[in-house]
Amino acid sequence: MAKEMDKVQSFDAASVLSNAEAIDAFNSDGVVCLRQAISPDWRARIEEGIVAALSGASTDLDVVKASGDSGKFTVSSQAWQKVDQFRRYIFESPLADLSQYILQSKTLTLFYDFLLIKEANSNSAATPWHQDHSYYPLSGTKVINCWTALDPIPLETALRFWKGSHLSGIVYRAANFENPSKPYKYARDSHPPLPEIEADPNAKLLATAMAPGDLLIFSSRVLHAAPGNRLDRRRAGFSINWVGDDVTYDDVPALETYRDPSLRTGDRIDICAKFPMVRPT
After folding, report:
1. Beta strands, E only, 45-203
2. Superfamily in which the 37-279 domain is placed by CATH
3. pLDDT single digits (tens) 98-115
4. How do the domains of the chain map onto residue ranges?
5. pTM tops 0.85
């Protein structure tokens, strides 16, 4: 039987910059939802950028179609460097100000952009339980994922979060997204294996349905997962990953998306062009 889920705490994005309760919710739960944070105009620009990214502008693109599925699962990263619509969204939209407020950081540095498109009936395109931080060559706590819904997302396809799991301070071993039963290429054996979350009676899960323009902001240390898409329509999200002022580089093996050859352990990542500071400008 599937575990019951409570709702992610949600706030009106229009008034959130004066609402300390949203910060408290993020700090306690590891995730918060800002309703109608991204306007239709900005979403239209993202959609224009998606066309460019999938037409060759994204050099970090992966398209997977599992056996038995009629739909594909497409992911793209670091496309902002060539896709003007993504760049403008990152630097000019309200996203950065909302993110910086929730993160409570004096600075906000772009780590990477990440596009996820689960086509209709991509049933097997599930995302296993994991922490984003397990994959990053970063030290520090102020690392967040800001995930914008581009389509209506009902509970059956929504992200799931283990409430408060970021508070333990534990960074678990990275999961293999392609085959969770096999070790991930850059997994660090010094990190403990992931717990059996679905079987843990003390694990309180959170989720929420989303409308286009709703924004999830969650800690890189909170454990989360997502099911495949059994709907007869697309389920897409565009996330921007940020780091704050307590974060430094940790020169350990990781995907090239997260690395830069000029960085050394202890460096701030904004000293290189790949990870620009967006706030303050």
Report:
1. 60-64, 73-77, 108-118, 127-130, 138-139, 143-149, 160-162
2. q2cbj1_9rhob like domain (2.60.120.620)
3. 999 999 999 999 999 999
4. 37-279
5. yes
